[in-house]
Amino acid sequence: MRRPDVVTVFDESVTRMGTVYCGSGRADRTVRIEAAQLIELVEPKIEDLSS
């Protein structure tokens, strides 16, 4: 699922979240997923972006 030509960055606070909601690529659909599963699928860089 991860695209090697795209860098995805999540704030480190995402690692402490449970269920999150994110876009699906369609205007009429939203994805509900556990943050840990999303991190596993997307393999983002985890950075401290909010401080």
TrEMBL record:
<dbReference type="InterPro" id="IPR036754">
    <property type="entry name" value="YbaK/aa-tRNA-synt-asso_dom_sf"/>
</dbReference>
<protein>
    <recommendedName>
        <fullName>YbaK/aminoacyl-tRNA synthetase-associated domain-containing protein</fullName>
    </recommendedName>
</protein>
<dbReference type="Pfam" id="PF04073">
    <property type="entry name" value="tRNA_edit"/>
</dbReference>
<dbReference type="GO" id="GO:0002161">
    <property type="term" value="F:aminoacyl-tRNA deacylase activity"/>
</dbReference>
<dbReference type="InterPro" id="IPR007214">
    <property type="entry name" value="YbaK/aa-tRNA-synth-assoc-dom"/>
</dbReference>
<feature type="domain" description="YbaK/aminoacyl-tRNA synthetase-associated">
    <location>
        <begin position="5"/>
        <end position="41"/>
    </location>
</feature>
